[in-house]
Amino acid sequence: MAETHSEIAILGAGFSGLAMAIALRRAAPALGLPADGGGVAVFEREPRVGGTWAVNRYPGCACDVPSHLYSLAVAPKADWSRAYAAQPEILRYIEDVARQHGVGPELRLGCGVASARYDAAAGRWRLRSDHGDEHTARVLISAVGGLSRPKLPKIAGIDSFEGPVLHTARWDDAVALEGRRVAVIGTGASAIQLVPPLARVARHLDLYQRTPAWILPRHDGPIAPWVQRAMARWPLLRRLRREALRWSMDARSLAFVHMPWLMRAVELQALRHLRRQVPDLALRRALTPQYRIGCKRILVADDYYPAICQPNVTLRDGGASAIEPHGVRDHDGALHPADVVVLATGFEATKPLPEGVVFGPGERDLARHFGDCPRAYLGTAVAGFPNLFMLVGPNTGIGHSSLLLIIEAQVALVTQLLRWMHDDRLRTVAVRADAEEHYNADLQQRLQRTVWGSGCQSWYLTADGRNPTLWPGSTYGFERMTATLRRSDFTVETGRDG
Ligand code: N01
Q: Which CATH superfamily is domain 4-149+348-494 in?
């Protein structure tokens, strides 16, 4: 097989991989890269760009962050059609952004990376694609996203089910749901978007709830065409809207991180929403969460509770105890027939890259190195793994605002690192172990009193309660932390070839 080479290889063409590719194009002269995307290869397993927005195609899929904040600062969009855009519009936006910025020649679509190994003698990463092709790169940037690997629940008998089993992130449009009996397992962010459209078409929908979620009103709706036109004509209006959203959402980090008791006011708002939408007392009780709001992701929906109140929908509180060839057993052991099972059970958030994929010097497996509790420096660099940078790495998740703000700050940091490598002819850059240690000790200290550690179980936490997923602060805070590269936190090798 032919071996190809690029200066930089990016894993993933979702929001973060594309934002990185765009930044590399913009900074190409300063990085010594050709302006046409040469020197960069973006490997993407799916046949199209979009990442999570290309694979999450379940009915009702939308963003629960307002559109004017859930967009890249480098690629503003004035004509979002709704306050909260749905998946097709977001995917179109991502495709448009790639096109408008000329990202294309560097894309290797339908080409996943099976393994990436660091060759210390050559100072290169050696990649092997799913097709067996070899590729080398000086720098490897992981942009695989935090929520890319579906989590399949360990429910007894799940493999014995004779009908289709779908996961929200592996949707199959060929599976007909109209007039069928559908069992949905899980009541998180994906489920609450999925249940209303499913309830409209299914003969019967059984919703297996293990833990009720806190839900706030969404206040979604179309953005009037005249508003869209005004934002296109006066970009300042759009910028003001974006900043207002950012400030108001970031202000919440104060309560999440420093004063969880303040969340009580938000709980009252959510309880009012529940009372208004669910008249049945027993159902309301079953839907009332027993943990502090914010401990798990706060959900927003206007149509979820009304859907559960429909006569063809039954809430099976307590979750599913077993699955059999033709149905699902509830918490009490009663069997409920089902034609299709839908798993809305989330993702392997602490293991986005499984074992056996990325190997640093000495064949050190990155996923094993991370173990149950991944950690990195600024979520971006990992001690012992030279010339490897991560986007949306450990502790960069953000529950209260737009992840795209974090991604763009990380992209700017990685661009600074690459610029340094180019200017000083560096062969390798790796974060120092003590800098990583110091950063994480401080981070875990800040995480201790946050709402996320207030006693619930969530995908944010490891089994022993550590938090390797969330950033404990505001998006402005993350931007500040990453704005200036502290070169003394890195070790380098000089004498770069080529
Ligand atoms: O997954 P989740 P998700 N038996 O992990 C339940 C992002 N997102 O796909 O709470 C029965 O939140 C589990 O129950 P419990 C967003 O960051 C964003 O919904 O563990 N139930 C829970 O109810 C979000 O946080 C958007 O007790 C089982 C559910 O499955 C993240 O993705 C939209 C079970 C999993 O909920 C994940 O959301 C959608 C079992 N064995 C998603 N195992 C936006 O709009 C798990 N569950 C941006």
A: FAD/NAD(P)-binding domain (3.50.50.60)
φ, ψ at 248 (rounded to 5°): -65, -35
Q: Is residue 16 a contact partner of residue 411, using CB atoms and an 8 Å limit?
A: yes
Q: Is the CB of 211 inside a 6 Å radius of any atom of ligand 1? A: yes
Judge contact between 476 and 409, C-beta under 8 A: no
Q: What angle do CA 85, 304, 55 make, to 5 degrees?
A: 45
For the chain, give every domain's residue range.
Answer: 4-149+348-494, 158-213+297-343
**Alpha-helical runs (H) found in 27-125:** 28-31, 52-55, 87-100
Mean of pLDDT over the chain: 96
First to last CA, the chain: 23
In tens, the pLDDT along 259-315 reads: 888 899 999 999 999 999 999 999 999 999 999 999 999 999 999 999 999 999 999
Residues contacting residue 209 through CB under 8 Å, at least 6 positions apart: 187, 286, 287, 315, 316, 317, 318, 319
pLDDT (mean) for 399-418? 97
Task: Tell me which residue has its CA closest to atom 24 in ligand 1.
Answer: 189
- Map tokens 């172990």 to a residue: 433
Can 4-149+348-494 and 158-213+297-343 be said to share one CATH topology?
Answer: yes
Fold designation for 158-213+297-343: FAD/NAD(P)-binding domain (3.50.50)
Statement: residue 382 has pLDDT above 90 = yes
pLDDT for 439: 98
Helices and strands (DSSP H and E) totals, the chain: 14, 21
Å from CA of 301 to ligand 1 middle? 15
* CA dist 415 → 33, 100, 154, 174 (Å): 12, 20, 41, 42
Pocket residue to mutate for ligand 1, from 291, 296, 297, 348, most atoms within 8 A of Cβ: 297
Radius of gyration of the chain (CA): 23
